[in-house]
Each structure stands twice: as C-alpha cells, then as structure tokens.
Amino acid sequence: MKNILIVDDDPAIGNLLEETLHRAGYYTMRAYSGTEALLSIANTRPDLILLDLMLPGLSGEELLPKLKGIPAIVLSAKVDVENKVDLLLGGAADYVTKPFNTKELLARIAVQLRNATAYEKASVLTFEDIAMCTDTHSVTVLEDEVKLTRTEFAILKLFLQNPSQVLPKSLLLERISEDTPDCTESSLKIHISNLRKKLRDASGKDYIEAVWGIGFKLRST
After folding, report:
1. Residue 136 has what DSSP assignment?
2. Same topology for domains 3-120 and 124-218, yes or no?
3. What residue ranges do the domains of the chain occupy?
4. Which residue, 120, 190, 134, is CA-closest to 162?
5. For 192-205, what is the mean pLDDT?
6. Residue 81 — very low, low, confident or very high, per pLDDT cuts 50/70/90?
7. Which of 47, 80, 98, 216 is most buried, with most CB under 10 Å away?
8. Any idea what DSSP says for residue 155?
9. At residue 196, what are phi and psi to the nearest 5 degrees?
10. Do 151 and 175 meet the contact criterion of CB atoms below 8 Å apart?
C-alpha cells in the first residue's frame, strides 16, 4: 500500500486529506511544518507528498528542492500562473489549487504514483558515470563492467532509484530484502563498504557517503 505524506499546518485540511486518502486505500503520515516534514522523510520515505506552501518555518517553496526523488503535489490557494510555472519548474510534480475537488486530486495522485512506479521499474538506471541494467543485472562504471554480489547490486539499485535521498539503514534493509535475503543490520556496513570500494576502484571517485545518525546517500563528484 502506498504511503503519502501530508504537509499542511491547517488541521481541518489535513484531516480532510487524511480521511479521503484512507478511503482510497492509502497509508498517510502528517507533518505540520517544513522542518517536521524533513525529519519525517529522514525516518520513512513516502511514495508521494501533498505539500502546502504557507508553512511555519521552512516554507513549501523552500522545501521543494529538498524533495528530489519524491513526487510532490503542491496544494495552494495561490492561483497566479507565474507562481505555478515557477513551482513546476522548481520540482513540483503537479499543482492543485485550493479549494480542490477530492476526486480530481485522487486522480492526480494516481497518475503521479503510476509514473513513479514506471520509473522505479526502468531497466536502465544511471548516476553520473554509473549505469545499471536491471534486466541483465550488470553494472558499468565509465563503460567498464563492475562485478557486484547480489547484495551489493540490490543496495546500488536502491541508491540509483533514489539518487538525491538519504536512505536510513532501516529502509535499506527493508527494501533490499525484496532482492536479497542475506543482508542483516550487522552486515549492512560491510556490504556498503565493499560496494563503495568497487565503485572507487573503477572510477577513482567516492560515490557513497555516510550521513551521521541517519544512513547513506549517493554523492555527486
């Protein structure tokens, strides 16, 4: 079941969205500020975000660039066309004006989740000099093949599917278990260290970095 994060400081609107989404069969999370949303994402990565703009502290506009890799539908009372264009160019997947029709919103959510699923299932994933073909289970760096274990492949696949995201250890273990059963919490660091070394040996670059207290992420070089 898909998980949707509602980021809105208005309890009435948040409650309406939560009820609508639950009826449609979605899990939901709530955040009432931009800062709270970032903390929530660091712990559990949602499949989609419904984002208000007028938030205390970190605004919706400021939050958007930090959500790369997660589709975000902006919900706002602002109707200015230029504002919509700027937000869509700035990373928003869609823009819905308040007050909104719940049936239309659910349709837009379904479209974005379908698009995200299609992306996740893409047969070729890339990041800078790294290319992975999920059909043939092959990885190349600077066009030279790099031999990875099953677990290393599963970890790299998840990183490539979420190139801008910090992935908590718990999420890594949960997601890669679909592709490999032999990774445990105690062995995860070893697998990542081995993967990092293989990528570094092939490219001379360190593509994976640890984010203290949270997890790991891909690093642009």
Report:
1. T
2. no
3. 3-120, 124-218
4. 120
5. 92
6. low
7. 216
8. H
9. -60, -45
10. no
Strand partners, 97: 76
- For the entire predicted model, the pTM comes to 0.56
Among 40-49, 75-84, 129-138, 201-210, the range scoring the smallest mean pLDDT is 75-84
Domain covering 124-218 in this structure, CATH number? 1.10.10.10
Phi, psi of 34, deg, nearest 5: -65, -40
Which of these CATH numbers, 1.25.40.10, 3.40.190.10, 3.40.50.1240, 3.40.50.2300, describes 3-120?
A: 3.40.50.2300
Give the Cα separation of 102 and 141 in Å (integer): 46
Cβ pair 95, 87 in contact under 8 A:
yes
Residue with tokens 């997947």: 93
Sequence-distant (≥ 6) Cβ neighbours of residue 202 within 8 angstroms: 141, 142, 144, 146
**How do 144-145 and 138-141 pair as beta strands?**
antiparallel
